[in-house]
Specification:
Chain B: Keywords: Membrane, Transmembrane, Transmembrane helix. Chain B: This is DUF2231 domain-containing protein. Chain B: Pfam families: DUF2231 (PF09990). The complex is a heterodimer of chains A (about 425) and B (about 140). Chain A has helices at about 5-15, 100-110, 315-320; strands at about 30, 50, 65-70, 75-80, 85-90, 125-130, 140-145, 150-155, 160, 165-170, 185-190, 200-205, 210-215, 235-240, 245-250, 255-260, 265-270, 280-285, 300, 305, 325-330, 335-340, 350-355, 370-375, 380, 385, 395, 400-405, 410-415, 420-425. Chain A is mainly β. Chain A has a single domain (about 45-425), classed as TolB, C-terminal domain (Neuraminidase, 6 Propeller). In chain A, the strands form eight sheets. In chain A, strands 1-21-18-17-16 form a five-stranded antiparallel β-sheet, with no helix packed on it. In chain A, strands 22, 23, 24, 25 and 26 form a five-stranded antiparallel β-sheet that branches. The longest helix of chain A is centred in the N-terminal third of the chain and has 14 residues, at about 5-15. Chain A is globular. Chain B is elongated. By secondary structure, chain B is mainly α. The chains are: A mainly beta (about 425), B mainly alpha (about 140).
């Protein structure tokens, strides 16, 4: 009898480790393969091992070059290119959730190993390349004393910044290197617990509305339904009054928002739920339809029910909208930017997506920037690697991409929150 | 295994070991009750409580098991109630560990495995407690 128990335990553990051998299911595009759910005993955790870049450099396609234009940030997350070519970098780390279970303590310690230990900057840094030679020789602190700023948007002469708990604005004059005064709060944002604390931001084409992406307060409601009020949704905020309403819901963690040039359509990338196995659930890119419900927490990719939610809600499941385009499971998409023909013919129409990289699967996914080609305004075909080489075969990880921004003059900016570097990808001219 | 020699005194239980074993039962029974409360309310704080009670019970169970195994080696026997106690503690520890992992799942994913395992370890903790108390009594009689 004594021998039976360890055997039983080993079997259970093996089941938890899952079938990570064999071919990965194809999970990009409109109809990703969705394997059965796996709930093992121990969630698979493979955490990045941070290492200095040394002689390594990110890899870009032939015909492109990549350079580090600035480093040493207090956690570089998102960037904004101002009309005069200056770059604003949002720096910070947010969240104030308490560990509620033994698991939260243990997982917290393990996951922290894969991220930067830099102090949260809580500021915006401005970078300027006055002579256009690709060297950003001026660096100033544009605004400090912010609270984990993340989303950035410029509407006319107003700069909007989404802190983890408030949406604020600064007056902006072209050429300014330091904000002329303290920020004015347009509206508070949901900030209790802030498990997913990043508040993504985009402004409508006419500048009348701001869209704010607000992540869920849990993986899958393990902090209770009350904690999810006003979470996992995109708010539409009136810039004139600060009034808000839910624009779309059921989006577990909409980490980046972007307005499609031409159509004015709002798009987002969403981080889906964990602990259902290495190949569930695919993160996705989707157009955000007004009033639509995208499934979280009750279901994923349309009507695939997540039984971890109780009580369940079949009516909500039935109403769930399928996202447009799967990006792959656990890639952790955190950046989204529409490209322009200035990025070269290969990347003329489509979006760049920054993928921070996985923790919940034994073979890492993400850890790169990809390009999703569009045709007739819709994503189509397979993702194309744009910036890779953030992680070596040994698991050594030199950088982790977050925000991606296209400079209309023809470059792609990538914020790396592990080495705290801003990378700039340019087509060779 | 070495045969118990005639004249060797019956295995005795140290009172501190008895206290360790006695500490397991209320924690594991508490975990079971919290699991049942979660089952009827779907309020996750109950399963958080259960996870902590289980973790506490595992600290007691770990030390009690270690002590019992050392006793087996020291007394060079697996027979009798001391052997049964070690076996009960081993089963308790293994099922308790699995139960802890199950309680690390999110939200309703602990159902129904959580309460089932908590019931198993609660019963095992009572068996271990009864065995250890009976060993104390035998010592006094002897």
């Amino acid at each position: 009898m004594k021998r039976l128990f360890p055997a039983l335990l080993l079997c259970s553990l093996a089941a938890a480790c899952g079938s990570s051998n064999g071919a990965d299911p194809v999970q990009f595009g409109h109809d990703p393969q969705l394997p059965d759910q796996q709930t093992g005993l121990v969630p698979t955790m493979k955490i990045a091992s941070p290492a200095p870049w040394g002689d390594h450099r990110p890899v870009v396609p032939q015909g492109y070059t990549i350079t580090a234009i600035a480093t040493g940030f207090g956690i570089a997350r998102q960037t904004l290119v101002l009309p005069n070519g200056d770059i604003l970098v949002a720096e910070g780390r947010g969240g104030h959730e308490a560990a509620l279970r033994p698991k939260d303590f243990i997982a917290g310690i393990i996951k922290a190993k894969g991220t930067s230990h830099a102090k949260s900057g809580n500021r915006l840094t401005l970078l300027r390349d006055a002579d256009g030679d690709g060297t950003y020789e001026l660096r100033t602190v544009f605004a400090s004393g912010l609270d984990a700023p993340y989303g950035l948007a410029l509407v006319g002469n107003t700069l909007y910044v989404a802190n983890q708990g408030s949406l604020v604005r600064f007056d902006y004059r072209p050429g300014q290197t330091v904000a002329s005064g303290p920020p004015v709060t347009l509206t508070d944002l949901p900030s209790r617990i802030n498990h997913h604390w990043t508040k993504s931001l985009a402004a409508s084409a006419d500048g009348r509305y701001l869209y704010v992406g607000i992540g869920s307060n849990s993986n899958i409601t393990e902090r209770g339904m009350d904690a999810e009020i006003d979470r996992a949704m995109v708010w539409q905020v009136d810039t004139a009054t600060g009034a808000h309403r839910p624009f779309a819901t059921g989006l577990r963690n909409p980490t980046a928002l972007a307005i499609q040039p031409g159509s004015g359509q709002l798009w987002t990338v969403v981080n889906e739920r964990d602990e259902l196995g290495p190949d569930l659930v695919p993160d996705y890119l989707t157009s955000v339809r007004e009033g639509a419900f995208y499934g979280w927490p009750y279901s994923y990719w349309g009507q695939h029910v997540d039984r971890r939610v109780h009580p369940q809600d079949p009516a909500k499941v039935a109403s769930a909208t399928r996202p447009d385009y799967g990006l792959g499971s656990h890639v952790a998409a955190l950046g989204l930017a529409f490209s322009s023909p200035a990025m070269g013919p290969r990347f003329a129409e489509g979006v760049f997506v920054g993928e921070h990289g996985s923790w919940n699967r034994s073979r890492p996914s993400g850890y790169k920037v990809v390009f999703i080609p569009f045709r007739n305004g819709r994503p189509t075909g397979a993702p194309v690697d744009v910036v890779t080489g953030f992680q070596g075969a040994s698991g050594d990880t030199w950088g982790r991409p977050v925000g991606v921004t296209v400079d209309p003059k023809g470059s792609l900016l990538v914020a790396d929150d592990l080495s705290n570097t801003i990378w700039r990808v340019t087509p060779a001219r | 295994m070495v045969v118990v020699q005639a004249g060797r005194p019956a295995p005795v239980l140290h009172p501190l070991q008895a206290a360790l074993v006695a500490g397991i039962a209320p924690l594991f029974i508490g975990a079971l009750l919290c699991d049942l409360a979660y089952g009827s309310t779907a309020e996750p704080q109950w399963s958080n409580f259960a996870a902590w009670l289980l973790a506490g019970g595992m600290v007691y169970a770990g030390f009690a098991l270690l002590w019992a195994l050392i006793d087996l080696v020291r007394l060079r026997t697996t027979r009798g109630r001391a052997g049964l106690l070690a076996l009960a503690l081993l089963a308790l520890f293994v099922f308790g560990l699995v139960d802890c992992f199950v309680h690390a799942r999110d939200a309703w994913a602990i159902m129904p495995d959580g309460p089932i395992l908590s019931a198993v370890v609660a019963v095992l903790s009572l068996i271990a407690l009864a065995l250890s108390l009976s060993l104390l009594r035998r010592e006094r009689v002897a």
